[in-house]
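Reading a protein record of the kind used here takes only a little practice. Each token is a code from a learned vocabulary of local backbone shapes. With that in mind, consider the following protein and its fold in token form:
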Amino acid sequence: MADDASEQEAGSEGGDAIKIKSAEFATKFMKAFDASKDTLQNSVVCQLAKNKEPLGMCTLGPHYYAGMPLAVKEVLEGSLVDTSCLAYGASWSTWSSEFKLPRVWPKLTPEWSKWVPRMEHFFAQKWKDYGIYDSIKMTEQEIHMDRPLLAASLCFWSSATNTINLPLGPMTPTLLDMAAIFGFRPNGEAVCATAKFPSSLHASLKPKAIKNDKKAKDDAEAKAKQLLNYSTFYATHAVDEAVSETRRQPPKQHEHAAFLLYWLCKFVFCSKSNKCTFEFVGIAEALSMGRPLALGPFVLARLYRALRNAVIDNMNLDIGGPLWMFQVWIQTYFHELRPTCPPFVPTMTLGRQIIALGTHTHSAVQCFAFFYSKKTMSKDEFAICYSRDHPSFLEINISKPWDKKFELDVILTWGSFLISRDLNYGLKGTVRRYGVEVYLPNFVARQLGFIQSCPALFLMSRNYFSSWRDGFTRTSQCSAVGNYYEEQFGKFERSGLKPRCPDHRATPHFQAWWLTFIMKNLGKDLAGTQRAALQGLPNLLGPKEGNGKKKAPDGKLKSTKGSSKQGQTSKKRGSTLGYTRNAKKTK
């Protein structure tokens, strides 16, 4: 079926060579780590009280309070296994010069435009209760691909640390970002290979068992596969009504769960098969029943894996996965790369508002130069997601004392945001798909309102702190990932989280280390680095991209709303720890 071997990502487990190099790096790193333990603080939230550092301020651990140890620094700079574009280049062979969208890029269809308002009529409040309302409503808009921005930003992505490495420091989509931009819940019931999901919808989609008749069995399986195509799936499971219909027919059996499966496959996970897959049926049915699933960590793991697969596979965008979320995340944090807009509405996720802005006029060369030269960000820019109080699980303000009855809410939410760990990737029933993606909030502390110090790599990661990805063979390995998080969460809960004002600075120790690290990776010559990274990228190197308009005389980026050639193809524009209500950050 559509969720078997055909859904396996290209290079998912990596070759033997990269595995060997990764294991060698891990061995070297562990020796360096053992020699540097005396300067390591291992708590989730750590107090800074050393010379030349902000007295009494907080950073995220684990971190090195006295600066990056020389032994660790040498291993990171000399042996890190990171198959990034800047290190190895890319062929760009799968990037069409005709500005065609990748197969898996979510496209708005007439049936989806009818299905969303129909289901919203019956389930809007439940979606809000479940924490998926904004995520669904976001998909009513055409998500226009900004090819130059994606091309340039992917060049800076590190699949070893799951960060985009810029002169100002590393940044990444965090679980806080996934909540503020896309509306995904950071905690709740874990979504992983060991999760117990309902199966009635899954059973209804499977072909009926036919014994002793191979032809009939093959025909039944072929028909079942055909029914998973998006258009056929809609025709089978939806009540076809006009958008303007006021007297709605009652939902069909499994219609809500089928709707959610369509949404998950097409827009959230962007399945490689470009159709509904059995892999996500259990999630869809569980959501339709109101189960509070922690979608944030699972979706983020899928995004990280998609970015990793794209980078190691010569920037192939047809590898599956929600790469559009990476584009929207970039546009969220870097306002220069999106069209100008009025202040964001506080009662709507950032993603819904940014998608509605349309596209921006710039070239890949301009975007690359922007990232290469990005040395600073203001506190307001760092805090764009931190300062949000929507969706509802971001409501409690942690800059001042909160009511004790919300203590568990705060700890649950912020524990998920702040604890470095592996995130489970893959679900039960898929082929060779179990694994993890490392989540390192201590590398991007400023995005979360903490001072950035010299971060320590997550020692327990199954991926050897590298571009290699371990392929699990047993669900018990997934259980171990969850058990580690529960153990770390217990320590975090016992230590508590005190009210605190956000601080988006970096320590002098971090700045000194990062300057040498990033210069080794980026080089000192913009033109040479840019040429090596983008060589072979079709029709995206000059001002022709972006509706053919020339750049301004001053060389600055100019914005238009929906002016790219690709954008013109559519005129439809933006019109298991316990679960409780969650927390809000300071403004």
